[in-house]
Design brief:
alpha/beta, 2 domains, Rossmann fold, five-stranded parallel sheet, 13 helices
């Protein structure tokens, strides 16, 4: 029990040994009154959506009360400059090019939404230096692209495109020479990101052996394995499929030297970016038989809209390319499925809502 003398002794403890007094009882410092905040009015925000962004995304934005204008096509640079002046948010896909000149005219622009995987159609340096946020939809269409590549692997191995074209012309050509099962063949994936890794799983399910090359070390899925260099992959793979972004390091990464390292009679698939493959070099490799077939979903220059525009005036080698056999050409439709476009619409709209 503490005595009165003990309490008195405690009271005589020197100040230097006392615990500091609690701040809870101290008077709070004076604060300035809070600033009044203007209520956020969604009708003040103008959103421009180009290239037929999926209706689901449009409905989400309209449902929140934003002022939304949606167009089905892309716009030229001059048209964009006129249209974007008072816009706060713009949503685009792969055809629209937001150059520094366009962004400079967008005095109110806060956000660029790329309703697709890539952002190379936006001048990211200008956007970053001017506080314009840029986001994309990196996950929404991965399955659709991976399924397209699987379909193309089988179609190339069986020469299905040629047989179908012949039948459309009335020619019955029942042949099996140089047609293969894909089981037991090796698929080489260049770029083991969202698409490449999902493709890896699907490919193993149909009996393909999978190797991959990436600039960083990544954990393998299933029984796939990473190889140290691109050359290693090219020399081992029966099918080479490209899934890399458009960067200075990837432009022209598959050209004459790389085709020379590929196995005789191998196949190339490009569903990434048109700048990655040297098309004249591919034409030469297919004519020589080094490459037995190819599937291209992307091109260095792509039309701004649908129509009869894929010709030599767009790309000088256009006519030569179309003359090749066992060549699948598709108009950048890797992610164009109902499921993917709906998911992209939602994934692209959500950042705008926040």
């Amino acid at each position: 029990m503490t005595s009165a003398q003990d309490i008195q002794t405690l009271g005589s403890v020197p100040d230097s040994l006392r615990s500091p007094s609690s701040s809870w009882g101290a008077a709070l410092p004076s604060r300035s009154p809070p600033l009044p905040l203007k209520p956020f009015n969604t009708q003040d925000i103008k959103i421009l959506l180009l290239e037929n962004v999926n209706q689901t995304g449009q409905d989400m934005l309209n449902g929140q009360g934003y002022h939304v204008e949606a167009l089905k096509t892309s716009l030229t640079e001059d048209e964009l400059i006129e249209k974007i002046r008072d816009v706060h948010v713009i949503g685009i896909r792969s055809r629209t090019k937001l150059t520094a000149r366009v962004l400079h005219a967008a005095k109110n622009l806060l956000v660029v939404g790329c309703f697709c995987i890539g952002t190379n159609q936006v001048d990211l340096d200008y956007a970053a230096s001017h506080g314009i946020a840029v986001f994309n939809s990196p996950f929404a269409n991965t399955r659709s692209v991976a399924e397209l590549v699987i379909a193309e692997i089988i179609a190339l191995a069986r020469q299905l495109g040629d047989r179908s074209n012949e039948m459309h012309r009335g020619t019955w050509n029942k042949v099996g020479s140089q047609c293969w099962e894909v089981r037991g063949k090796t698929l080489g994936i260049v770029g083991y990101g969202h698409i490449g890794s999902q493709l890896s799983v699907l490919a193993e399910a149909i009996g393909l052996d999978v190797i991959y090359y990436d600039v960083v070390a990544l954990m393998a899925l299933g029984t796939s394995r990473q190889v140290p260099t691109l050359d290693d992959l090219l020399q081992e793979a029966d099918f080479v499929t490209l899934h890399v972004p458009d960067l200075p390091e990837t432009r022209g990464m598959v050209s004459t030297a790389q085709f020379a390292r590929m196995k005789q009679g191998s196949y190339l698939i490009n569903a990434s970016r048109g700048s990655v493959v040297d098309i004249p070099a591919l034409i030469a490799a297919m004519r020589s038989g080094r490459v037995a077939g190819a599937a291209l979903d992307v091109f260095p220059n792509e039309p701004a809209g649908n129509g009869d525009f894929f010709n030599s005036s767009l790309n000088a080698w256009g006519d030569e390319l179309r003359e090749l056999r066992n060549l699948i050409l598709t108009p950048h439709i890797g992610g164009n499925t109902e499921e993917a476009q709906r998911a992209i619409g939602i994934e692209g709209a959500l950042p705008s809502l926040s």
